[in-house]
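Tokens help. Our protein:
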Amino acid sequence: MADYEEMTASKKLAGFIEKNKKAFIAILIVLVCCLIGYIIFASVAKSNKSKNLQALDEISYELTSKSSDLEDAEIEARIATALEKAAPLTKKGGVVGARANMFCAELAFKQEKYEDAANYWKDAAAKAKKSYLAPISYFNLATCYENLGNVDAAMENYKLAADNNDFVMRTHAMFSYGRILEAKADYAKAAAAYTELNDNFPSDSWAKLAKSRLISLKNEGKIE
């Protein structure tokens, strides 16, 4: 009986497939076309990414090549040209856009154009939120805000960098976060930040500096 029911079910399935064969073939064709389209898109995207990163490297090379003997005016001219050439790349998404914005941010910072540099670092962070480039961008954005006198924004971005466990300058960011809290006379939070740094990274040079600040704050009666 079970064999009979199985055969009947198989016949029904075969009949259904035969009846709807054209529809199945059409669906299969669509799926194959989608797969081919995705492969082509991924290939083109990878190629464009490589070309754009190569273009950025070439801009950087043109900027720095044989520059040691250049006059200040010539260096400024090169920087202006580099910024102009890199501008279209800063509009790209992903790692290309992030790296292009980082490149422009460094140039603007060297020119002491801190607001421009901050905007570039902000865009770099937005385009690289889930990569190792994000905390680097947050840290440098914080530095720009400090130079602009915006200590609250600086503190916020130092904290973002400090919260990233993989950031190679994490202890520096943690100390800078505490330093700004101390400058704002928020001694309790500053002490908490310094303590966290000292407890988690006791042998680090920034942790040792944090420990010295804790001692100073206690001696000055600002914390218990």
Notes: Residues 21-64 form the longest helix (44 residues). Residues 2-6, 28-45 have pLDDT under 50 and may be disordered. The two ends are 86 Å apart (CA to CA).
